[in-house]
Amino acid sequence: MTYPKELWEDTVLEHAEYPFQLFQNRCASAKTGDCILYLHWHEHFEFLVMQTGSAVIHVDSRPYVVQPGDIILIPAGSLHVGYSLGDGDVNYDCIVLNASLFNDWLSDPVHAQYVAPYLEGRFQFPVKPADQDETCIPYYSLLDEIIQEFSAKAPAYQLVVKSKLHLFFTLMSRSFMPQQFAEQGERAYFPNRERFKQLIRQIESRYADKVTVEQAAKEVSLNPYYFCKLFKRLTGRTFVEYVNILRMKEAKRLLKESNDSITEIAARVGCENPNYFTRIYKKYMGMTPSQTRKRDMIE
């Protein structure tokens, strides 16, 4: 199902390397019927943790009543909106993440069987999991721990959050994945997976090479349209985004570890136009190349 572009939210995730973000929503003195979550959709997963008050959250037109302690799992691409069910404060936290967070697990066969089907949209967790299986409720504490990590921002909190999110997906998969899928494996559901993994390894080792979508599609024997669709399902990113992020990660490393000029670094990662390189770098890294280098010198 597709929704109008006007309702699409370009949710900004702070770091390209760790595409997740915590949004803490505080609606003080809400009245019954007040909109506490405006109508929108985005390309990320969203885990809503209810803290205070009560509300009804509509996900793809289906209503779900939430009370403190309840969890709502909103699939990527789903239209959602929320309204207060009483007078008083309504507080909830949203953990938003992009499927590309787990791209370094793509070659892991257990991840491919149990977690990837949810990241790729082939299966979906129940929007309100506890209504279908109460045995998943103990897993909710992982989301509370993730919120605490976001708030404290202790050293390496990004790795802790990533690990706990992957654990949450894995445990939820254990509860909800249909048994017949576990038995027959994942290959029938994603054509050319091995070729895609080989292509991704090639891109990662030769990120500076110019490779068009048409050339990449030919590598996996697909037409460009279907290739783009499957590539995004597998990685959570478009082909161009994936290549750009690889290049900017390498550029960030070079800015910190080499004395090369920004123009030289741009060329080394496949960007011949320094101005274009600066725009793309800022888009994915949140600062300009010069700011990255200055920050590293200060630190």
TrEMBL record:
GO terms for molecular function: DNA-binding transcription factor activity; sequence-specific DNA binding. It holds the Pfam family AraC_binding. Residues 197-295 form the HTH araC/xylS-type domain. It comes from the Bacteria. Keywords: DNA-binding, Transcription, Transcription regulation. This is AraC family transcriptional regulator. It comes from Paenibacillus dendrobii. The lineage of its organism: Bacteria, Bacillati, Bacillota, Bacilli, Bacillales.
